[in-house]
C-alpha cells in the first residue's frame, strides 16, 4: 500500500481479507505516506480496526522497502496524488502532497511505475491504481504492457468534477 492517507482503504482491505480467508490467515500490510499526520491517522485507523500485522512508515513511496519487497508483493494498492498541479507543489510534506501530481498529474505516479514489475510476485502479483482522465490511463496501461504486465482499466466512474479510473496490472 502506498500513500496511506487516513488508513481507511487498508482497514477495508484488511477486514475483507480477514472475512474471506479467516482470522487465522496472516496477511502483512505495509503502508507508507510522506505526511506524518497521515501516518498517525493510519496508525489510529489500524488500531481501531484491529489490523494485527501492519507496518506504517513515513516515507517517500517505497524507497526504504524496495530491496525487501523484491518480487514478493501479492497486492499493491496505490491512490497517488493525481491532480495536475505546478511541479513546485509535488513532494512537499504538507497536505498538498495528498493531491499534487505535477504535470498531467503523473510526476509521482511515473516514479513508481518502473518499479512495479520488480515488486509484484511473478505469476499473479497484482496492483490496483486510481487515476483520472488527465493522467492518461490508457497511456499508463500501454506503458505497463511494455513491461510484460497485463494492464487494463477495470472500472470508471464520475465523481463530482472528475472521472476516476481503477487500473489493474497483473504479473503474468
Report on the structure:
The protein is of the alpha/beta class and about 170 residues long. It has a domain of about 120 residues. Helix content is about 30%, strand content about 25%. The protein has a four-stranded mixed sheet with strand order 3-6-8-7, with helices on one face. A two-stranded parallel sheet has the order 1-2. A two-stranded parallel ribbon has the order 4-5. It is globular and about 45 Å long. The model has no long low-confidence stretch (mean pLDDT about 85). GO terms for molecular function: nucleic acid binding; protein methyltransferase activity; S-adenosylmethionine-dependent methyltransferase activity. One of its GO terms (cellular component) is eRF1 methyltransferase complex. This is N-6 adenine-specific dna methyltransferase 1.
Task: Explain the layout of strands and helices.
Layout: H1 8-21, E1 29-33, H2 36-48, E2 54-58, H3 66-69, E3 75-78, E4 83-84, E5 100-102, H4 107-113, H5 116-119, E6 126-132, H6 137-146, E7 149-159, E8 162-171
Parallel strand pairs: 1-2, 3-6, 4-5
Antiparallel strand pairs: 6-8, 7-8
Helix content: 25-40%
How widely separated are the two ends? 20 Å
The DSSP helix count reads: 6
**Mean pLDDT, as a whole number?**
87
Total number of β-strand segments? 8
Ranges where pLDDT stays below 50 over 5 or more residues in a row are none
Major sheet: 4 strands, mixed
Determine the strand fraction and express it as a percent band: 25-35%
The general outline is globular
Radius of gyration: 16 Å
Structural class: alpha/beta
Q: Taking strands numbered 1, 2, ... along the chain, how are they ordered across the largest sheet?
A: 3-6-8-7
Protein name: N-6 adenine-specific dna methyltransferase 1
GO molecular function: nucleic acid binding; protein methyltransferase activity; S-adenosylmethionine-dependent methyltransferase activity
Main location: nucleus
Family: Belongs to the eukaryotic/archaeal PrmC-related family.
Amino acid at each position: 500500500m502506498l500513500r496511506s492517507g487516513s488508513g481507511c482503504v487498508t482497514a477495508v482491505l484488511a477486514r475483507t481479507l480477514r472475512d474471506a480467508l479467516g482470522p487465522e490467515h496472516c496477511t502483512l500490510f505495509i503502508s507508507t505516506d510522506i505526511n506524518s499526520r497521515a501516518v498517525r491517522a493510519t496508525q489510529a485507523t489500524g488500531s481501531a480496526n484491529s489490523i494485527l500485522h501492519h507496518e506504517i512508515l513515513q516515507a517517500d513511496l517505497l524507497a526504504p522497502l524496495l530491496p525487501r519487497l523484491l518480487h514478493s508483493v501479492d497486492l499493491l494498492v496505490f491512490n497517488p496524488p493525481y491532480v495536475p498541479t505546478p511541479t513546485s507543489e509535488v513532494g512537499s510534506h504538507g497536505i498538498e502532497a495528498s493531491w499534487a501530481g505535477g504535470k498531467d498529474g503523473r510526476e509521482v505516479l511515473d516514479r513508481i511505475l518502473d518499479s512495479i514489475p520488480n515488486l509484484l510476485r511473478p505469476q499473479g502479483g497484482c496492483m490496483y491504481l486510481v487515476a483520472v482522465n488527465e493522467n492518461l490511463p490508457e497511456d499508463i496501461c500501454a506503458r505497463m504492457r511494455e513491461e510484460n504486465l497485463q494492464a487494463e482499466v477495470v472500472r470508471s466512474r464520475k465523481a463530482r468534477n472528475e472521472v476516476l479510473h481503477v487500473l489493474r496490472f497483473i504479473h503474468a
